[in-house]
Amino acid sequence: MFIHLRALLPVVAVLLLALQMLYISQRFDAYTLVMEGAVDGWRALFGYLGKAAKIVVLFVVLLGVLLQKELRSLWRLIHSEADIKRALIYLLPQLLSFGVLLQSSSTIFDHASEADQIDAYEYWLWCFALVINLGSWALMCAPMRIWQNILARFWKAVVIAGLIAASVWFFTGLAGRLWGPLSTLTFILSSNLLALINPELVVVEQSEKILGLGSFIVSVAPACSGYEGIGLVTAFLTLYLYINHKEFRFPRAFILFPLGIAIIWLLNVVRIAVLVALGYYWSTDIAIGGFHSQAGWVAFIATSLGLLWFASRWGFVQADDGDVARRVPDGTVPTVNDGSAQAVAMLMPLVILLAMVLLTAAVSFEFIWLYPLRVIAALLALVWYWPEMRLIPYRPSPVALGAGLCVALIWILMLFNADPEADKVFSEALQAAPPLWSGLWLVFRFTGAVLTVPIVEELAFRGYLLCKLSHSQNYTRGPVLFSVIAIMVSSLAFGALHGAWVAGTVAGIIYALVRLRSQHIGDAILAHASTNFFVFLFAAYSHQWSMI
Length: 548
Fold this sequence. Notes:
This protein has helices at residues 2-27, 32-35, 49-66, 71-80, 84-109, 120-141, 144-153, 155-176, 179-197, 227-243, 256-281, 284-311, 321-326, 340-362, 371-389, 398-415, 420-432, 435-469, 484-496, 501-516, 522-542, and strands at residues 202-205, 210-213, 216-219. By secondary structure, the protein is mostly helical.
């Protein structure tokens, strides 16, 4: 028993810190200090802790990428130093400092409007508690000499990861000041498009960037300039070219970046014009509540798929046999069975589901009554591509069920009472509808959560993306090579698909680990399905429907 506890100690320590940091990040919003403008001077720095946390996460990911070949040896080193007695000694200050951190966070961030009146010692207490929390956690895992040796050995990787993360922070802030001119150009082109529809009704105030048709008027803020879409397309192309680098000729393939940026920006211009026209000619609620939030994702998916199709057929950027031959040691052209039919089967159900999600959301306001169409579309896609998926036979694993329950507990803990307004809207909509329709809608919602969504998402993220990034051809069955990059990228992409991206990323990591220890994608699907099953039951019992 003692030996088993010692073996699990590093895993338990990692989970402990992860849960603490996740709870802090979900419970408090530091940026309220900035939005309410209640603090200045050095106190204002606390308002940017949320952004700083993202940079820290980026630093950790970059460090993991730089040290990916050394991670196993580092883990074995820390594992060999695990000691129950030392862990118990430092566990007390670790938990006490977390309690102080919670109390200080509540004092500062829950009373943002009065933050300038809070004594300075509360802010310094917060910093002190964070240092003690992280320091005692590190000493729980390994003694100080081990951490000193690791730092001395890999200080270059630490510095490089830190410089890259700091550069991202710097250029992000710098870019935020450059979007003014871009939003002005976006505004001008959108107003010209509206003038083609009905020039007599167009309302244009360029100094304030106010645009409208008749009585429906919107403000084109810098955030509407299209920079988010540009960032998404840039990230997508970077990932796509990295995964499929052998299929392209460099540096020619880099021309896809300006092409994709131009397309997504022009689509954003069209999106603003269509939003205004939709609000005037059809429905203000749908224009603001549905179309405004979903049209950007429609444009991004359309641009990404269009670029993917175009790049695969444009000979100018495609690698020829000579390029491939130069990349292998003996100069021969390898024959690769990339399982293209199965790869398409892994991805197309998700593409179809996302398209239906965006379309149903774009024509809905507050409550998605058209959700059954998502389930039907996903089921039809799964049936159509079923022969290529090769999911049968499969034997369920109890480990997958346990992992699913673990993720469900994390999800519930992080999202408990997170959006009471959305829960209220959800409950009122179901109560106002005829019992037959509301009951049928819940049946479809349950079917989507427990059946179609787990299958579709796991096929794409743990079936295709995880295997592709780890250079494994076993999309649905067989072993998958361990790769830190594959785990992190596929999990971050999975998290980005969900509103609660932090919880989604943690869930993606656990599902990836389930797949790595398994011989079948079915275990990841089962873990995901069991998570959604337990979360759905809790949401139905507590009426916190925003969790699902």
